[in-house]
Amino acid sequence: MKELTWEALVERAQQIVTTTLAELPVEIRVEAQGVPCLFEPYCLDDPEILGIYGHFSPGEVSEANGPIVLYLETIADYCLEEDEEFDTEVRLTFLHELGHHFGWDEGDLEERGLG
Q1: Domains of the chain
Q2: Is the pTM of this model over 0.70?
C-alpha cells in the first residue's frame, strides 16, 4: 500500500466502516450504528495498539456507547510491516472493537471470527 495522507486514510477508513456496518446482521447492525467510531493517528498511551473501545464491560452491552477509536497511522504502519491489506485490517479492528461494545471478551470475539 502506498502511503496516504491523513485525509485519505480517514476517508478510506470511513468507507470501510460504513460498508462493514451495512454487512452486519440486522440485529447487530441497529445497535452498532449508534456506536461512534473516531479516527486518530496513533494512541499516545500505547503507540502499537490498532484500536480501542471505551467502557468495555465483559458480558454486557455497554451503556456508555464507546466510542470506538481506530488508530489509522498505526494500522497503516502495521500493514506495511506485516504485508497486510489496510482495508482488511481496518475492518477487522473495527469489528474487534465493536465486539467489545456487546460485552464480548477475547474468547467471544474469536468464536465469532472477530478476533
Answers
A1: 6-111 (3.30.2010.20)
A2: yes
